Amino acid sequence: xxxxxxxxxxxxxxxxxxxxxxxxxxxxxxxxxxxxxxxxxxxxxxxxxxxxxxxxxxxxxxxxxxxxxxxxxxxxxxxxxxxxxxxxxxxxxxxxxxxxxxxxxxxxxxxxxxxxxxxxxxxxxxxxxxxxxxxxxxxxxxxxxxxxxxxxxxxxxxxxxxxxxxxxxxxxxxxxxxxxxxxxxxxxxxxxxxxx
Length: 196
Hints:
Elements: H1 14-31, E1 36-38, E2 45-47, E3 51-54, E4 63-66, H2 71-99, H3 108-136, E5 143-145, H4 147-168, H5 173-177
Antiparallel strand pairs: 1-2, 1-5, 2-3, 3-4
Helix pairs in contact: 1-2, 1-4, 2-3, 3-4
Keywords: Apoptosis, Cell adhesion, Cell junction, Cell membrane, Cytoplasm, Membrane, Transmembrane, Transmembrane helix
Family: Belongs to the TMEM47 family.
Pfam families: PMP22_Claudin
């Protein structure tokens, strides 16, 4: 384990804090308009998880088209949103698990399993979106998948890391709770004459 070893009492909130960070990144991904953007000026294309917008080089107004009119758009949004909702539930369960001492390790592995489900849903949404978007939406100019799409992947990576820790944490239950007595090593006087 790390130096903290999750044995210090303050470290128990590290995993729920990371889940909270994943939720914040997920909100940014869901609300952000930067899933796809023009790479350089003139900026004529931008898209979110929900819609795709284009404009002419001299035009100031965006013409937006809903991606919910496409089956793949609904699928990408639904899978990412379902993963996000389960992530919020896992966050609430983690706060409960680390707040109530009796329940703490009874369902921590279950939270880890749910987090793997979250990661699977989010990865499906994050893969469907760029593949089908580039196939079915006409792109203008040079484009790139941008910051909001990156926040979606960052949230997924944090969720995968937390899932591994939640699944492995019960193996170190005694260390986390401080139930292990320290082991002292000593030598007999014959082997350590400098102790006299």
